[in-house]
Sequence to fold (651 residues):
Amino acid sequence: MKLNLFIAWRLLWAKKRAMGMSLAGIVCGVAFFVLTQAQTSGFEDFFIRTIWQTRGPLRVQDKYQASVTEMVARSSDGKGSFAIPLREGRQYVPGVHEPERVIEAVWNFDAVTGVSGVLSGNVTATSGFRSETAEVMGVKMSDHVTVSGVADQIRYGDITTFDEDPQSAVIGSILAERLNLDIGSELLLKNAGQSRRYEVVAIFETGVRDYDKSWVYIQQREARQLLNKMDGLTYLQVNLRDNDKAPQIAEQMKHALWHDVDSWQESERVWLEVFRALRVSSGITMSIIILIAGLGMFNTLAIIVMERQRDIAILRSMGYRRSDVAQIFLLQGALVCAVGTVLGWIFAAVLTYGVENLPIRIRGIFATDHFVVKWDPMHYVLAGVVTVIIVLGASYIPARKAARIEPGDIIRGTSA
Amino acid sequence: MSETSTQKSVVLQTRQLTRYLGDGANRQLVLDALDLDLHAGQTCAVVGPSGCGKSTLLYLLGLLDRPNEGTIHVQNREMAAADDTARTAFRNEHIGFVFQFHFLLPEFTALENLLLPMRKLGRWGDEEMRERATELLTRFGLGDKVNRYTNQLSGGEQQRVAVARALANEPTLILADEPTGNLDTRNSNNVMELLQEAAHAYGPSILIVTHNPELAQACDRLLTMRDGRFESEQG
Fold:
């Protein structure tokens, strides 16, 4: 192996210009593969974190109950009859009923780290400037910070006294802008003929446009008055130790609580599929670049084998086996592959660092002021694996051809 | 000499060695049931007109080609029907080649060209291999050029490196195909002397295919080939 590696290196070095082109292709392929994966994964992860910090990993919502009807069967003479129960399905009752009992039951799950009851409903928010439709969120803030990122999403103001002051309102940044509200401004919320006044104590920005333009947090007791809902909650927002297990835990909770339980993976399925499709498609595109580099490698090695037939014959005449010859050419491919992959990784890290610092303002499904990337060693491993498969695959055919060369035919052909 | 000791001294023996080239209507008999014995330390020249089968014979004896019929015994081992791995290993250990064109690898220095078969054989340690290779090149007048790449050497020097490489693993048989065919008279004489010296100093049997009458005459035996058969023998 060591001897064959030495020979491979010398033969490779003699063709450094031609190999350099293949090497450049591999470096670029690996680097762009990693970069695109870092970007798509970065944005995907950022989106997922945004979901966790807004709607939470799990929501316990509408109660359901089995609806059963009977079919009455009579005997042919009409004297006897019996009823057959028919299970038709589930009937949903909006909201969480007897929330204290349900919350207690939710806490029985070991996976749960936080529960917050939310009473929500549509209202009209009015300032001295204009009116907007808003969604009021009646919460106990000390609970809600354990299931969301609201504490980190505060851009202006403070929420520490929210639970003590019934007039406190925390509103979304876009709504605040539309109503021309600032910290300390007065906000009027109207619903079903009654209106209540609040003071804006904080403005949050989740980055999710739909939330930032409509959500208004007020105390839950205030929300009951405003929405005229004296019992029950709209949903429970639940935080978990391991958010990736949300679908399994949701399924267990459904059976235990008789409520519909929605995991973040289920509710955001469409967006998650979009991100997955983007990640896979960019991976395929970048693999094609590596494949083209691999074809370049194949081409270069095939030419080298053609040009080196005499040298191969000499090595064979000196006692090098067919497997040695194949190994020498495979090692040339492996050397280019190894150098290309390592340089590609370095180039990828530099590019990723550069892109991470590129300014870009994104609002809509999340909020960021620069490109979001994910530094994941798996991207580098994956790029390496794809490169090894393609380049060694491309090297295998010329190597096999080299091994099949009959030294006698070549030497006889070059004799005078 | 007794029968047993004669058998022992035979390095190379062929019986009924037959080789056809081409297929179908183009199939042509190149070697016609050749019998040959070559003894240890013997130099043997094979001469004959172009196309008589000299080179074909050489490549068969060098285990670079396979006969259609017949046997090849080298060092009392039948190699004609041996598998490719065994023939390759045998070539490495027991057979050295000198070709018409030096056939050195240009990416390697003169010393490294000698080390290639030696390192493959693995009989000696790294330091010993270097010493032996340097000594060989020095003996062939190339002591000051061991680290030169072969394309930095003259044609005569290149052929001397090729002869040294053929001797590197101390083979029992050296096969030379027109070793002076590409050299001027002075270098031809030089190579001829080296081969003779090698035969006497290191003891391998040498079989030379040549058109060079001086080189042929300098050998212990002279075989003349025609139409795939040995026509006559001298010595």
Q: What stands out?
A: The longest helix of chain B spans residues 185-201.
